[in-house]
Task: structure prediction
Amino acid sequence: MVIVLFLVFATLQVFRPDFTNPPVVESKTLESELNVPEEIASILERSCRDCHTNRTVYPWYANIQPVGWYLMNHIREGRRELNFSEWGSFSNQKKRRKLREICEQVESREMPLPSYLLIHREAVLSDEDIKLLCQWTETEIEKIPEE
Ligand code: HEC
Result:
């Protein structure tokens, strides 16, 4: 029985997801388009980067399957919903909507994903972080012209 389980586990290791990050074009990133003060940049980097940019830092345990698949699913979905590295390709309407959603998602504590926070304690947002993020999104929304 133990041998069978071991063989199943060993076989899973062959099917490793592709952890290559898509390229980042600096001129298309959120940071290059919006005014991102230091404290906001540090929150986004600490709490959102791994799932919402093309600069994911993969932990060592991503190399163990099926953990890697589980992480990769979140990263793919997170990037699909909102990719800071591809901000420049959004319409103005979408930019405003995504900024609004950033505030909503952190206020309701749906983001960062709770499963991520279990391990990445440094990514937990304080009430002050949330307030700063929401003030920032409000300011930036004002600057984006309606189409
Ligand atoms: C561990 C991965 C992970 C982290 C870290 C993470 N997200 Fe997400 N995010 C996701 C996934 C997966 C989705 C899509 C599924 C969902 O909405 O639950 C998502 C969706 C979103 C959406 C779109 C929601 C919608 O309904 O349209 C916003 C906005 C968002 N995240 C903001 C953030 C912000 C801001 C941070 C950092 C403070 C953050 N996320 C951190 C994985 C993550």
About this structure: The radius of gyration is 18 Å. Helices lie at 2-12, 30-33, 38-47, 49-52, 67-81, 92-107, 114-119, 127-143.
